[in-house]
Amino acid sequence: MDAFLQDLIHYSPQILAGLKNTLLLMAVMSIAGLAGGIGVFYLTLGKNRLLRWGTERYISFFIGTPLLVHLFLMYYGLPQLGIRLSAFAVAVIGFTLNVSAYNARYLMTAYNGLDKTQIEAARAQGFRFGQTFRLIILPQTLRLSVPSLTNQVIQNLKDTSVAFLIQYPDFFAQMQEIASTNFQFLKTYVAAGLVYLALVSVIVAAARRLERKTALPGLETLDHA
Amino acid sequence: MALIEVQDLVKRFDGKEVLKGVNVLLSEGQSKVVMGASGCGKSTLLKCLNLLVAPTSGRIIFKGEDITRPGVDIHRLRQDIGFVFQHFALYTHLTVEENITLGLRKIRKMKTAAAREKAAFELERVGMFEHRKKYPAHLSGGQKQRAAIVRALAMDPAVLFLDEPTSALDPQMSREVVTVINKLYLDNITMFCVTHDPFLAKYISDSIVFMHEGVIVAEDIAERLFYEHDDPRIRQFYLSVIDHR
Ligand SMILES: Nc1ncnc2c1ncn2[C@@H]1O[C@H](COP(=O)(O)OP(=O)(O)OP(=O)(O)O)[C@@H](O)[C@H]1O
Ligand SMILES: [Mg+2]
Questions:
Q1: Residue A21 domain flag
Q2: pTM here?
Q3: Percentage of chain A with pLDDT > 70?
Q4: Partners of residue A131 in chain B, C-beta under 8 Å
């Protein structure tokens, strides 16, 4: 058997553990990022001007500065203030803050495209704002944002690969370690790339299904455009 | 008995006075139409009455209670007033049936089955039962407006407000909707309707209120207001909307 394949088999427990960490981080930040995005989006619709300004600044800050800076700041910077967080905690917090900002922005964009007379109708019917948000605004903005939100999940998967820079033992960290012991850089990184590609394909397939199933009535045709 | 009594209602939008002291009365079982040139404040008046727009001054007595006073439960007030919009304003992600049952379930706290039954009954009355599983995007304008009327009526409001319910419709669909509103009129549903359409106005009103630049300048039954009033503003308005048809 090819020596490289033998290496892969030999290191498979380590690779699988890395893969597990990668998927875990992706899942946690995707779910927390969706919840956070919805929360931030909700705040941007509020009456309180200061709060709206604050959330807008938050979104701009996280979209406008590199993710790695946030991770390094928390992992290497905070200990100087006596705050020491695990690599996983830093990754989850850093990524979630980041992903929430992006998701909130997608939802806001979808909201701008909504027919606002429905919201006035809901108000006129006597719905409270929270109900209008939950029953009218959110279902529609979420469904309109499925393509962007699922793209973000793909982005999340790929972004986990920088977590090794704060010592998080993700899949890519394991592959790097293997490459540095067997010096098969080319083959190892091609293999790593293929694994990411396979995972992304799974997400894309699921995303397409979700898009078809959740398309808003009247907008289904956009699917084929 | 007066259901709604409006006294000296004033509304200013950043300094611009849109309602300049409106006085109007709507009794239970009565149907009133509001007419007047574009921009004279008709929609603003309707929206002040259910506090979608906050009045600047004046009093609005609804069921004997001054709703302009602080501490009024605006949600409860609005739940008692059905509102039909020019552009239907149906919830696009919900079927016709769901559009109607949403308020029944979430506001009236009805069980889903009971809400569906109520929706079916009301849809039947306007000939929309067969369309209950369709989404708004798959309906004609007339069907959308009938669905919107049912959504408002199913809540059993004390009064139905309609803001130009036929202006977004072509003549045929408009007739469809006029027929439905006329039925409500004959059923003595309390209504307050803004329209530019003298045909609709005539067939659904006990009396017509004519507004000009934020004040009510005349109130009379359709025949007298349209044909006998000598206020030039009313003549001019009437001729313009007649030409339009
Ligand atoms: N939210 C608002 N802010 C500022 N000005 C407003 C607002 N709503 C209405 N106006 C102004 O108030 C005036 C009356 O508006 P309104 O919509 O009540 O008129 P209308 O009689 O319903 O007209 P139309 O027949 O065109 O519907 C208009 O000049 C409009 O520009
Ligand atoms: Mg208007």
A1: yes
A2: 0.92
A3: 97
A4: 106
